[in-house]
């Protein structure tokens, strides 16, 4: 049953060892891309809640919403319909990113919002100059204003994701604890390898976060074991379990630690944020 999974993970571990560098100590304005070309794996949930938890730990955090769905934007209570300057205007029109940064109502958390306008960016970028560097050119202007910049990538490997990977210091991979969630992951790591070689030699793998874990199922436990077997140094000890409150929080425009701080989802992401900080030298 797990033959295809094992084959994909062998490829991933090989790519990781040869192409993706070891984790480095955090520095001011570390840019972390939260990416997975498969939707529904907890990517936006992780971007929003990691950013919010880091803010609660006293870190000044910018959440960059690079997904046209704008779920990270609405997930922190920002009205997508009211956006004047957002990710699209920055990437396509060269707007000043400082005009796009919005202070959320949550501690130390800011956001560059996004909406459906960004859906047309892929086509517009094709013939643009420095098309792979639009996000980097913008974010580097304010990089030193933040401790962490968390970028929520779209669920694809198009030019927007390529832009974010070119700007990022590292990539965080959320993986759903189900068999099909792991399919195609080797393609993403291969894309990382190519970006590292051609566009961003500093790019590294931040870590692999297991999400939507259900300890009652044999499948979930088996996937966890297989992933940890091939990524013994890169899989976080923290695991995000399935949680009703975690699923409900976005509809209220709040990260789960503000929506219900006593919930299992909140404790999972606080634990993960603490581990993330430890892995980055506690900074």
**How many individual helices?**
13
Structural class: alpha/beta
Ranges where pLDDT stays below 50 over 5 or more residues in a row are: 15-26
- CATH class bucket: Alpha Beta
What characterizes the major β-sheet?
Answer: 8 strands, mixed
The sequence of SSEs as H and E is: HEHEHHHEEHHEHEHEHEHHH
Radius of gyration: 18 Å
Helix content: 40-55%
CATH homologous superfamily designation: P-loop containing nucleotide triphosphate hydrolases
Strand content: 15-25%
Number of strands: 8
CATH topology: Rossmann fold
Strand order of the largest sheet: 3-4-2-5-1-6-7-8
Question: How many structural units, i.e. domains?
Answer: 1
The span between the termini is 42 Å
What is the overall pLDDT average?
88
Under the CATH scheme, which architecture would be assigned? Answer: 3-Layer(aba) Sandwich
Rough shape?
globular
Characterise the protein shown here.
The structure is a single chain. With 283 residues, the chain is an alpha/beta fold. It has a single domain, classed as Rossmann fold (3-Layer(aba) Sandwich), CATH 3.40.50. It contains 13 helices and 8 strands. The chain has an 8-stranded mixed sheet, with helices on both faces. Helix 1 packs parallel to helix 9 and helix 2 packs across helix 13. The chain is globular and about 50 Å long. The termini are far apart. About 4% of the residues have low confidence.
């Amino acid at each position: 049953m797990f033959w295809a999974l094992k084959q994909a993970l062998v490829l991933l571990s090989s790519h990781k060892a040869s192409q993706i560098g070891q984790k480095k100590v955090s520095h001011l304005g570390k840019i972390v891309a939260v990416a997975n070309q498969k939707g529904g794996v907890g990517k936006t949930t992780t971007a929003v809640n990691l950013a919010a938890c880091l803010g609660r730990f006293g870190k000044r955090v910018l959440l960059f919403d690079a997904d046209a769905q704008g779920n990270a934007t609405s997930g922190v209570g920002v009205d997508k319909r009211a956006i004047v300057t957002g990710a699209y205007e920055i990437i396509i029109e060269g707007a000043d990113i400082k005009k796009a940064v919005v202070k959320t109502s949550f501690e130390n958390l800011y956001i560059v919002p996004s909406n459906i306008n960004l859906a047309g960016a892929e086509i517009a970028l094709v013939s643009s100059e420095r098309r792979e560097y639009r996000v980097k050119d913008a974010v580097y202007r304010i990089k030193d204003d933040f401790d962490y910049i968390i970028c929520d990538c779209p669920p694809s490997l198009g030019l927007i994701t390529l832009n974010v990977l070119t700007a990022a210091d590292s990539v965080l991979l959320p993986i759903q604890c189900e068999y099909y969630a792991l399919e195609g992951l080797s393609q993403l790591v291969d894309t990382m390898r190519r970006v590292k070689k051609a566009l961003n030699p500093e790019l590294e793998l931040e870590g692999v976060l297991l999400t939507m874990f259900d300890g009652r199922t044999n499948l979930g436990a088996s996937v966890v074991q297989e992933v940890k077997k091939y990524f013994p140094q890169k899989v976080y000890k923290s695991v995000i379990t399935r949680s009703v409150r975690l699923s409900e929080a976005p509809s209220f425009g709040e990260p789960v630690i503000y929506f219900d701080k006593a919930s299992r989802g909140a404790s999972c992401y606080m634990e993960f944020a603490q581990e993330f900080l430890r892995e980055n030298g506690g900074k």
